[in-house]
Structure formats: structure tokens, C-alpha cells
Amino acid sequence: MSSRLYPIFRKGNPRLRIFLPNFYMKLVKPKCNEPTNQVKFIIPLEMTDDDAKNYLEKIYNVEVVQLRTRLFEGEIKKNHKNYLIKDPDYRMAFVTLPEDQKFEFPDIFPQEKKDKESKEQKRLIEQAADLMKQRRRNWDRRDIPSWFGV
């Protein structure tokens, strides 16, 4: 069931209605040593096992062998003003795919980008070190002019 508002139907116009679910499924990156045919999702508390299974099968055309869900309590943290802050509760779905299917988490940052970023970071660190050396050079002789000697 959807709570989206649709335009008012006027005579002569086609009735274009697409019913989309109000749910979302957030993919969780797997830890090491997990089976390649298992996927984890964070789903809303209102979503049932049947809803999650139908969501994956109907919308994404993914064959689901087994689906288990588990409720997790949000973490309670202390603020710097000693206020308690609680993260919202969530439900995690553990989806098992058929044995012939393997799921690989998408690599968002390929190695080439990582190399470029690391080179850029090294350059910035060296530049900052040079600036610190220049500032440190005459910190105890501020009142003496530079032409007098280093």
C-alpha cells in the first residue's frame, strides 16, 4: 500500500498508476569469511519476512532460498553534556541466495582512485611539513631582522 498522491483523474486522460512500496532495504557490507551467497540488509521495523522476500523477488528479480530477520536495539551514547542519545532500532535481514549465485559487494573506490588519493594526500602532507619548517625556523628570533642571519 502506498501513501503517494496521484494527480486527479480527468475524463479522457489515461489512468497511470504505479504502486510502489514505502519500504527501503539498505545493503550492508559483509565482513570477511562470510559465504558468497549470503547478503545482509537493514530493513524497517514494520517490514515482515514475507514483505522482504516479495520485495526482492518482485522488484529486483532475485531468487531467495532463505530469509531470516533479527531485531537490533539502537546504540545508547552519552553526549558531551551528559545527555543520553539512542540510535533508532532496526531490523536486519539475512538473505541466502541459491548456491550457484554469488554476490559481490560493489567496489565503489577502485585501486586506481585509491592510488591517486594517496599520492594527493602525501603531497599535501609534505607541503604542510614544509610550511611548518618555515614557521619554526625563526620562532625564537622574531625581533631580529632576516638580513641579520639565519
Automatic annotation (TrEMBL):
<keyword id="KW-0496">Mitochondrion</keyword>
<dbReference type="GO" id="GO:0032543">
    <property type="term" value="P:mitochondrial translation"/>
</dbReference>
<comment type="subunit">
    <text>Component of the mitochondrial ribosome large subunit (39S) which comprises a 16S rRNA and about 50 distinct proteins.</text>
</comment>
<keyword id="KW-0689">Ribosomal protein</keyword>
<protein>
    <recommendedName>
        <fullName>Large ribosomal subunit protein uL23m</fullName>
    </recommendedName>
</protein>
<comment type="similarity">
    <text>Belongs to the universal ribosomal protein uL23 family.</text>
</comment>
<dbReference type="InterPro" id="IPR012677">
    <property type="entry name" value="Nucleotide-bd_a/b_plait_sf"/>
</dbReference>
<keyword id="KW-0687">Ribonucleoprotein</keyword>
<dbReference type="GO" id="GO:0003735">
    <property type="term" value="F:structural constituent of ribosome"/>
</dbReference>
<dbReference type="GO" id="GO:0005762">
    <property type="term" value="C:mitochondrial large ribosomal subunit"/>
</dbReference>
<dbReference type="Pfam" id="PF00276">
    <property type="entry name" value="Ribosomal_L23"/>
</dbReference>
<dbReference type="InterPro" id="IPR013025">
    <property type="entry name" value="Ribosomal_uL23-like"/>
</dbReference>
<dbReference type="InterPro" id="IPR012678">
    <property type="entry name" value="Ribosomal_uL23/eL15/eS24_sf"/>
</dbReference>
